[in-house]
Structure formats: C-alpha cells, structure tokens
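Entry type: protein chain
Record version: 2
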Amino acid sequence: MERIVSISAVGSLREDLRPRDLVLPDQYFDRTKKSLEHTFFGKGLVAHVAFGEPTCPDLRKVIADVARKVIARQTEGKDRRVTDHGTYVNMEGPAFSTKAESSTYRKLGFDVIGMTSLARPSSAVRRRSATRPWPW
C-alpha cells in the first residue's frame, strides 16, 4: 500500500463553502481531549512525529485535479467547487459545537469542522508504518 485516502462529512465555517463542495484540508486543528487513547504507543514508549505539514501536497493536487475533471463532465452539479487547501477543526462529539465555539473557529480562520477526520493519530500511525496516507 502506498497511499490512503480518507473521506469525511463536515460542516462549513465559511459562507462561501456550500453543501457538496469538496475541501481537501492541508491543516488540522485538534480540539479533542482523548488523543492519547488514539495511539498504539504506551507502557513507557514514546515517539514524536512531525505534523507541520499533515497532508501530502502532491496527493491533494492529484485528487483536486481529478475531482475538477469529473465535475466538468457532469450534466448536473457543475456549480460544485473544489478547494485544495483549508483548515479542518476536529471536535469531540457527540454534541455539535455551540454558536460561541463556531464563531470563535470562524474568527480563527478555520474552514470546516467535523468529528471524524482526526488527522493526528491516523496519520501518525501511517507515517510510522511507512505508508503515504491522505491526509499526508
């Protein structure tokens, strides 16, 4: 296996991102509280993995180019847009964020919000196992 692609439904934090638009995040902001539970390390073993660039820019470009071509060939839904960057804020469910939280996330410049694309643990595991995942 060389690449992994993960798909997640999200909510938009921007007025210009509409339902059915495709956002390929290049950054993540982790608001979860249980990140230690999402790693295979423990019992005194510690590993640090760089996450300055959590997604693979080459794979993101390929996916964006293909998505744009597919949309262009469709008879319906041509108004869908593809954004090849953005920040995904990952929150802990099951409750949605409050209006105050969402307002703060918008002010911080985040683009989309969700509960299921926790980049850090899954990407860290994939990086340690030498695969090249999306995101990464």
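Comment: The mean pLDDT is 81.
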